Amino acid sequence: MSRKGLMEQDLSKLDVTKLHPLSPEVISRQATINIGTIGHVAHGKSTVVKAISGVQTVRFKNELERNITIKLGYANAKIYMCEDERCPRPMAYKAYGSGKEDAPLCDVLGFENCRMKLLRHVSFVDCPGHDILMATMLNGAAIMDGALLLIAANESCPQPQTSEHLAAVEIMRLQHIIILQNKVDLIQENVAINQHEAIRKFIQGTVADNAPVVPISAQLKYNIDVVCEYIVKKIPIPERNFISPPNMIVIRSFDVNKPGYEVDEIRGGVAGGSILRGVLKVNQFIEVRPGIVVKDESGNIKCTPIYSRIVSLYAEQNELQFAVPGGLIGVGTTMDPTLTRADRLVGQVLGEVGSLPEVFVELEVNFFLLRRLLGVRTKGSEKQGKVSKLVKGEILMLNIGSMSTGARVLAVRNDLAKLQLTSPVCTSKGEKIALSRRVEKHWRLIGWGQIQAGTTLDIPPARVATCEWLNFGHSTQSQIIPALLSVIRWPQCYPVFANATVQLQCDSGNNVVSTVTTTASGVLSILLDSINYLLSSLLSTCRLVVTTPLASCNVNLSPTGILTSALQFVGNTVVGLLTVVNVAPVGFVLHIN
């Protein structure tokens, strides 16, 4: 947790009512504002992010080979200003990576002994500019508070994706935009001035009408300090809600385990995204919706939310005890890593158990179509293609939050449409969505809409379990419980039980049937999921709150064949026999309500 020069976070002293985005313990470790980089392919979006933050967002092999962004990139940066008012602008502004201490020394000549003040901690969402990756860009736009629109000075303005991206951020109600005229080192001054006028003409009447246009060279880092000053002065930190139950939109998900890991080294899945409201805390129990989606024999969609627990929170390399709305964070969980591998959770919503929005399979939307297609190259004076009306039966692509999903038009009347979704989506009425249509083998933005109503899935609440213990011998309940839990999950659990303590709560309706109260020990990170994971896949989810002293209990387990030999499934009941060293064999029956 300790990192040189950064404020410490203490969960025991956390009061969410007193938090704000510029609280020292927040801004020191976590970005509190999201800024997107948008614009046409190869106009320098990733290079600008690297110039400001020092982080290379193009990380994947195929991205590096082709020199384009394919997945959403992300990087955090801290923006400082010299505390000495005599320090000349814009050199007084400086950006560093998010691991930089909170009060570094100024590096402007003559002011080397002055300290710098941390003004902003920014998360950059680096969007792809290639036309076939428009869906990925729209997913990134869902979490932006402001945007840097990149326009290359050595090309005519506007390029196809320049206009398409600008329309996309208008749909997302993005008010705060800074235009960066990049690559000015490649052209002569009079060409730059002419293009500046072309940019002004292009943005006239759009949301970017009054946006500043800053000439820069991202490669040479020319005028990057000016960009930092504009970010501080032109993009305000939006008001954040710290009080409500947490709600996070997932834009990336990972399996952090490398091939060849030993069983006891395996870690749970990681979800990356931005918290829209509320505060996430380490050790908090969470739910992910829609979760695991399947079709039954009749072809009806069913979804099972994933229940898990937060074991770690990170903002890049900065470890957090709690995370607030704003910049991108990584949430380490006890989820099975196969569920988070290769961005499988993208588009899902993570939050407090029982507080997430409903899951929709059909939507009724109030929509608005663009007059003409954006982002399509035209020959000579040929006009851009008109956007035709929605037709019953046609297939669209919807972007809802960070989820991209197909949708069939079931009915259209005036500006209302009924849409059947390919995949269920966790969202709310009033949410804005982007509509795209297949044009010349590419998905093109044709308009936007707002959710008015819809058909939701019935999601049963987290199931609860009661335990019935048989043949206690001379063992105690507090010894048996962790043995049971260690059986119902990966074998790497069992070594951590030495000198640990666990609590079991069994609910029946709203009544606690049986509780063994103790203190938690941190190493029991997998326990809630232990029961959930197995029962959600084989039966249904149950909810156990685990925290019991083990004394000298040792669990005798074989690392292979544990589930088949130790457990039998009979209807809604799990029956098993455990052997605890130096203790008589213990039988148990776990009833799932």
From TrEMBL:
SUPFAM superfamilies according to UniProt: EF-Tu/eEF-1alpha/eIF2-gamma C-terminal domain (SSF50465), P-loop containing nucleoside triphosphate hydrolases (SSF52540), Translation proteins (SSF50447)
Keyword Cell inner membrane: no
GO biological process: formation of translation preinitiation complex
Gene3D superfamilies found in the cross-reference section: P-loop containing nucleotide triphosphate hydrolases, Translation factors
EC annotation from Swiss-Prot or TrEMBL: 3.6.5.3
Reaction(s) this enzyme catalyzes, per UniProt: GTP + H2O = GDP + phosphate + H(+)
Listed GO CC annotations: cytosol; eukaryotic translation initiation factor 2 complex
One Gene Ontology molecular-function label: tRNA binding
Superkingdom, taxonomy of origin: Eukaryota
Domain Tr-type G intervals: 30-239
Keywords for this protein: GTP-binding, Hydrolase, Initiation factor, Nucleotide-binding, Protein biosynthesis
Enzyme class: hydrolase
Record-linked Pfam families: eIF2_C (PF09173), GTP_EFTU (PF00009), GTP_EFTU_D2 (PF03144)
Described purpose of this protein according to its UniProt entry: This protein promotes the GTP-dependent binding of aminoacyl-tRNA to the A-site of ribosomes during protein biosynthesis.
Family: Belongs to the TRAFAC class translation factor GTPase superfamily. Classic translation factor GTPase family. EF-Tu/EF-1A subfamily.
Protein name per Swiss-Prot or TrEMBL: protein-synthesizing GTPase
Annotated source species: Pyrus ussuriensis x Pyrus communis
Organismal lineage: Eukaryota, Viridiplantae, Streptophyta, Embryophyta, Tracheophyta
